[in-house]
Amino acid sequence: MPMHPDSHDLHTVERLRQLERAALAVPGMTGQELMRRAANAALNSLRRHWPEVRNIVIHCGPGNNGGDGFLLGVLAREAGLQVELTALTGASQGDAAVARQAWVAGGGCVQVVDDDDTLPTAELHVDALYGIGLHRAPEGKAARLIEQINGSGQPVVALDVPSGLDADTGHCAGAAIRADVTVTFIAGKRGLHTGRAADHVGVLELATLGVPDSVYADVAPDARLLRAEILPRRPRYANKGDNGHVLVIGGEHGMAGAARLAGEAALRGGAGLVSVATRAEHVFALNATRPELMVRGVDGPQALAPMLERASVLAVGPGLGQAEWGRALWLAALDANKPLVLDADGLNLLARQPRRFSVPAILTPHPGEAARLLGVSTSEVERDRFAAVRELSRRFGAVAILKGSGSLIADPDGRLDVCPWGNPGMASGGMGDLLTGIVAALLAQGCSAWQAGCLGVGLHARAGDRAAQHGERGLLASDLLAPLRALGNGVHDGERDHD
Asked: What is the reported pLDDT for 493?
């Protein structure tokens, strides 16, 4: 499918409306013409994914999304498909009314949905119920129809946005279509790439409908998808001192594994030296299993001081705990005024004692930790992940990474990137410790906090996808270390990135 050069750009609904208005100002570009192009793109996608399908049902709403559906019906019937069409209302609005009339004029029937209707039998269903303007839960017969489509067991194609999914946030307030393919139009919608969207969008395709580049020139995107990137090749005369010294601070009683994972990820991420400050009881085991780590037992800030002095970047929080020992080390680390990455209990302690950072700092919370930092509920964070990560970054003066499906990276100026990689197998213990180590290693090698956050999230997620090639369930954090090293050096082995 033809892609615009700026297909990594993601927009809010408000900015999409600006793009639509600008497109309609182009000579010859009418609302009907855009609908026709959208319908044609949808038909091409349908036939490409399911060339054997002959019987489809298109479900239309009252607005322009329904208009796309009516014109898809016209084109699909002309292409020889058997088409049934249902509508939520007995009449349509604006350009959608013209599209509806085109369907009827060609001999098509419209079945207006009633509360007790059964779902028509079909080989494939097309969702053209609601577009980008829906920010509430579908109600009544619309919600019931969505549940019937989801329960049909047949493939589903969504036009522009799966109905019930908020195009701005990725939140589902109620019933929402679970599509196998979503064909989205004109420009990328940020809400299709994070949170609950992963379970509703399916394969996402962008059809720009031939809108000229000039239309996009004056509308800045709200966010962008990460691109697959690596660090530049090292000079042949490089030495370990050129690549930074990461100090991992963590590993309370019984939590040595978290500190080791963060430390080993920092090594595999390219840091020249990695030290670990942890409980004395863990030193022997960590030295025995990963001798490249310089592990030292510390009983408090005084023992930590010389390690802080030697380090160039701090990774604070993996397995740290929030008791007296962990809190004392946390305070000493933050008072050292060195670039740092905060995770896990490093974040929980920050929620208890907030401060704004004046040194390069990166926060890596999951939604629960983000909620504690912001003083809200986890559900509020998930309701608008974009607003949450931007507020974290603004409040603490740091780059913030909100982990989860479609991880988000934001800086205090409002810049925001979205990660298109990752998989459910990564929802397991230790994955966050790896990310902490990777990001710290990149910071130590000279990346800015923004670069380290974006590149680190991307490498972490892509390594997870490569490690999950033999199955997501049972994926271990340590399984990512070998592909992480390969990806950091630009070794692809046939890997397909979202670029």
From this structure: 54
> Are 251 and 172 members of one domain?
no
Residue 371 resides in a domain = yes
- Structure confidence at residue 279 as a pLDDT band (50, 70, 90): very high
> Is the same domain home to 193 and 271?
no
| C-alpha to C-alpha distances, 434 to 6, 43, 172, 431, nearest whole angstrom | 31, 43, 30, 5
For residues 65 and 13, give the distance between their C-alpha atoms in angstroms, rounded to a whole number: 14
Confidence label for 491 from pLDDT (cuts 50, 70 and 90): confident
3 has pLDDT over 50: no
458 is known to lie in a ligand binding site:
no
**Weakest-pLDDT range from 54-63, 119-128, 145-154, 226-235:** 226-235
Domain limits at 77?
A: 9-222
Report the alpha-carbon distance of residue 43 to residue 46 in Å, rounded.
5
- Kindly provide the b/e burial profile for residues 108-134, where b requires at least 16 CB atoms within 10 angstroms of the residue's own CB: bebeebeeeeebbebebbbbbbbbbeb
| 136 marked ligand binding residue | yes
140 and 66 within one domain: yes
- Clarify whether residues 272 and 159 are in a common domain: no
Does 404 carry a binding-site annotation? yes
Query: CATH no. for residue 387?
Result: 3.40.1190.20
So what's the pLDDT on residue 495? Answer: 47
65 annotated as ligand-binding: yes
Number of domains in the chain: 2
pLDDT of residue 71: 98
Out of 222, 252, 284, a domain closes at 222
CA distances 112 to 90, 101, 127, 129, 161, Å, are 6, 15, 15, 12, 22
The answer to whether position 498 is within a domain reads: no
Instruction: Out of 187, 222, 257, pick the residue that ends a domain.
Output: 222
How many residues make up the chain in this entry? Answer: 499
Instruction: Judge whether 7 is annotated as a binding position.
Output: no
| Residue 131 assigned as binding residue | yes
Task: Say if residue 272 carries a ligand binding annotation.
Answer: no
| pTM assigned to the model | 0.94
Tell whether residue 407 is among the known ligand binding residues: yes
Is 405 annotated in a binding site? The answer is: yes
pLDDT tens per residue, range 448-476: 999 999 999 999 999 999 999 989 999 99
Note whether 313 and 188 are same-domain residues: no
Whether 471 has a binding-site annotation, put simply, is: no
Tell me the pLDDT of the chain averaged across its residues: 94
92 appears as a binding residue in the annotation = no
Q: Is 186 annotated as a binding residue?
A: no
What is the CB-side half-sphere exposure of residue 100 using CA atoms within 13 A?
Answer: 24
In a domain, 499, yes or no: no
pLDDT higher at 225 or 134: 225
| Residue 127, marked binder | yes
Q: Is 132 annotated as contributing to ligand binding?
A: yes
CATH at 120 = 3.40.50.10260
Does some domain include residue 228?
A: no
Please tell me whether 64 is known to bind a ligand.
yes
